[in-house]
Please model this.
Amino acid sequence: MLTKSDSPEKKTSVVIIDDDRNILDLTSLILAKHGFQTYTADCACDGFELISRHTPDLVLLDYIMPETDGLSVLRQVKSGFPDTYVVMLTGKGNEEVAVELMKNGASEYIVKPFNNRNLIERLENVLKIRKIELHNRELQKQKEHLLFEIEQWNLDLKKRVREKSAALQNALEEIARSEKLAAMGYLSAGVAHEIRNPLNSIALFIQLMRQTATEPDQLEYQAKILKEVDRIDAIIRKLLDASRRTRTITSDIQINQIIDTAIEAFSPQTDARKIQVKRHYHCVPPPITADPAELEQIFTNLFLNALDAMSYGGCLAIEVFENNNRVIIRVSDSGSGITEDVLPSIFEPFFSTKNRGTGMGLPVAQRIARMYEGSMEVECTSPEGTTFRLEFPAFT
Ligand SMILES: Nc1ncnc2c1ncn2[C@@H]1O[C@H](COP(=O)(O)OP(=O)(O)OP(=O)(O)O)[C@@H](O)[C@H]1O
Ligand SMILES: [Mg+2]
Model:
């Protein structure tokens, strides 16, 4: 049977569970008189229903009730309603049990029969302790929340530091690369001139010798010397290209046409090597004001590399499309790909994996792309091939 004393709301609420109706009524009366909101139940089952309904501040629980084990009721209350404090009512001689009850979460035990003053005093003590403990728990929660937030900030901060460090590292590498290019440009401009003149003379003299030579050995050696002279000349040209800072002619250029011209220049090689060339021009991008020779150089270098990577034939695909006000050009080959250990260095001046490579193709191409506010990077690479991605702003 459930009863509720008539008391105003928001008072300290107590559920009293005792099978002895007299104790129940008497206790309820005393507590109500002292301003408590009381709910009474004469069995554990009803008591539990009251606790679930009102979530009281306190439960006064009789330890010995028919068909009920006080300890298990206590445990149920403590696990289901941790903020509800339980005061056990025990009979005389049950002190040992009472200690056991305290170990299992009871806040206090009161030995029956009890006097009114003692009951009120003990309950008020428990309530004081409860108030402090709940407050501490709240503070603990706030502390954990703050610690969690600090941890999140730390993680965020660490992430940002990592990102900024990576950006700084990239910038430093970029500076080192440009410095290398600049130093190289300065040197090469002077050295190229000095070397080219004697080189021309060597080529000239060899050609004169070839006019009179009859021995096949001599002819072969002279041809080899001329080939090497050509190679030196090509290297010098590349060094000069890499260091060239001023644009010669600039005009409005259709990038698709530039690509066509570069492809055309390579047709003898692609035909001979049975390399299929595929063009996918998905748009006609707005013209770029640029030096056509420079832009062509980008594609020449990319195509040369692609051809080098496809010694046994394959496919060279060029795709042009516009996205987010950017002109995007993809140059893909079905060559051998770039290995992971090589990939970070390919834009470094002088880095080459080829016997006769100067390692200037990609740094020069990238420098030119950047000169026109563009970018150039490896989009993907695998043993099935490589795709380079170029992006330029689509100024209209
Ligand atoms: N399409 C590609 N497939 C596979 N590897 C490539 C490709 N493009 C570039 N590489 C790698 O990047 C390196 C650097 O290329 P880069 O064009 O700068 O120099 P290079 O081709 O070696 O010499 P150069 O172009 O001056 O004759 C190459 O040696 C090669 O290892
Ligand atoms: Mg190259």
